[in-house]
Amino acid sequence: MPARDDIELMQHADGELPVGQRASVEARLEREPDARAKVEALGELRDVVRTRLELAADDVSDHRFDLLWRTVAREIDSRDAARGGASSGARARQRGRDSTAPFDDPEPSAGWWGRFTGWLDRYRGHVITGAVSAGAVAAPSLILRPGAPPDRGVRALGGGAIDVRPAAMRTAPEIESLDTPGGEGTVINLVDEDGHTAVIWVTPDDTVEGI
Amino acid sequence: METHVDDRELVLAARRGDRDAFRALFDRYHRRAYSLAFGLLRHEEDALDVVQDAFIKAHKYLDKFEGNSSFYTWLYRIVMNLAIDHLRKHRRQKPVEMDETKLDDGADGALLPRILGGNPGRALMDKEIRARIDQALGELSDNHRAVLVMRELEGMSYEEMAQAMDCSKGTIMSRLFHARRNMQKRLLDLLDHPSPELVEELTGQRPDAPSDAAGAGDGEPPAKERAAAARSR
Prior knowledge:
The structure holds two protein chains of two kinds. Helices cover 57% and strands 13% of the residues of chain A. Chain A is an alpha+beta fold. In chain A, strands 3-4-5 form a three-stranded antiparallel sheet. In chain A, strands 1-2 form a two-stranded antiparallel sheet. Chain B is mostly helical. In chain B, helix 8 crosses helix 9. Chains A and B meet through helix 1, helix 3, helix 4 and helix 5 of A and helix 2, helix 3, helix 5, helix 6 and helix 7 of B.
């Protein structure tokens, strides 16, 4: 069977067949089971390709897409900052409206620390970012824990603001990696000036990333 | 963000600087955009880069979005253009397998009838089938894969594809025909050399089961027989 006829079948299946040719192709489909099978095969191929590509997106972790969003947000922030006042005003209004807005996160594009954390997010995200974040959470938790000495605690200032003074640590946080049956976890040992130690477990869900 | 808020409202809010609104658009479409980019590029990191750049670009030019089409239609054109640019810049182009201008190439060029049985969705749950489909897609030339993905995933018209790829409708039609035929041939090859697991997946029977029982459950012949029947047509 000439391929030209099959091209017409394909055009028909795609809804691209010129009006003048439709009647003859439909008549052919009526009388030829093979022609019908070929049109069905086109539908099947479409299902296969579409389903396969939709499944491909499921192979990428939510965390990876979240990192991607953060990069997008940083880029937008940088551009807004470069444009100046109007966009900054818009961001300020947005912050005032919703304290959970994504750009309430520290804006990494603002300086070297931002660039560093941005790089960390992008390339070293899964374990190290989790550990650093956990450390960041751990530091105030050491200070705010029950029974902490009042001179290192939390004081309400006159205007209602909270003044948190960080406790000095004698040593840098010790970070260990731990393999578990469910993935990889992280243990961080923090020793403050009083010799207290906090152990933080970063769950595998926080650390798994598809890169 | 409420799910009932439509894209147009989100776009308007994002134009006013509402980051949550743009985030909502991102949340709605990033996976679909990724599927498209991955289909064209066949490389996870490249596809993610394209999606990232597409959303940055979409935000940058949000004021130019006129609302004549849906936001996703606009976004996928951006994704498509970026992916095609990427392909051109990082040419991994394999030689086109055949003369794309020649359509009437005889019986060998005929489309092959359906081959994966009645349930391709079920077949796709099989890792081996997915891997072989990936392989088959990867073996297509960039041009053939591009038209296949644009048509099958996004349902683009021949005219839209011709504009996206800067070529004639006739070329698109030819590429699409050959791309589909090549994919079908590769899927037939898959069935010519199935693993025992694949035979079981497709037929519901273990390959060492008595032959008269194979496929008896749903009326489908075994994979090899289906492949042979398809070839003989």
